[in-house]
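Reading a protein record of the kind used here takes only a little practice. To see the layout at work, look at the sequence and tokens printed below.
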Amino acid sequence: MKSGRGPLDGIRIIEVAGIGPVPFCAMMLADHGAEVIRVDRPGKPPMPNDPMMRGRRSIVVDIKTQEGAAIIRKLAATADGLVEGFRPGAMEAFGLGPDTLCAANPRLVYGRMTGWGQTGLYADRAGHDINYIALSGVLSTMGPPEGPPTIPVNYLGDYAGGAMMLAFGILAGLLKAKATGEGDVIDCAMTDGSALIGTITWHLQQIGEHQGPSGSNLLDGGAPFYGVYRCADGELISLGSLEPQFYMRLLNVLDLTDDPLFKNQYNQTLWSEQRETLEALFATHPSAHWDKLLFEADLCYAPVLSPTDAAKHPHNKARETFRIVDGFLQPAPAPRIASHERSAENAGPTEVGAHTNEVLDMLGYDDRSIEALRAGGIVA
């Protein structure tokens, strides 16, 4: 039987508002049932209709004031976890560092999200996703061999190497707290996380299977049987026929089985010529022709879709991979958990400060105290 409550039901997380990975991490935890209370800063409106703001309550507090910091300490005392994304030392300057909050609540799991980490040569330096994945070695592995690296939006640093690693660290800490009664401090750095995402590249380099520049190796676009091709109508398709059985199936579909050029799949000296042959071949027909032919052959294939087209594809529609909320398209929660119904409830973005009074009331502040805090600009 499916329930509208996720597996994290009963877990309270305090999200000290930030950009990029912290709200994405909080969104994931909320998607799976955690009660997330987001602490927004005064005068900092969010991006409109941001799906990363879905599923939690919002309270506006000026944590740089003594009264505001006191509210966060009260909140943290009731919580199972806290996530923040300030530079090292900033939360300590507000009186909200892990030493303070974990002393008051020993079960608290305190998640710290930074680009460079809490320690190291760059720890107190500014940066963004592109810089973190550059230093980790991952950025250099992307793009054509003759040009600079291709920038993968901010997927690898902010979200894969940052937000998802932080969510994993928080869950690991919660399991420890449940077993021992003691929380932990999670030092999540996007340099560390993106390096970990690239583990396979380090392995392939050390066994001699990833030696050339980016765009010339097995998994980075160098192999003609693992890449993207343009069709006669300008649309793109992707091939992933790595295994010999799928490679032979590809050759059969393309009527290349007897072509001596394609006899040796892993002879890299032939890859450039093989790719030119395939480019010319795929350019002879529109994408609809290849979609039907390659899909029916079951040989590791998919069309390359725009975000809008991806939402319309029959596979994604059948799985409800995307949803429209208040007229805005967004990916639905993932992964799927058998006992948890992925309800559309709370799928819209939270209005900043919408729950300030409600949360303060929960912490024991009376109406007069709340009005005084508002008048003083401490909350909004």
The chain is about 40% helix and 15% strand. The first strand starts at residue 12 and ends at 16.
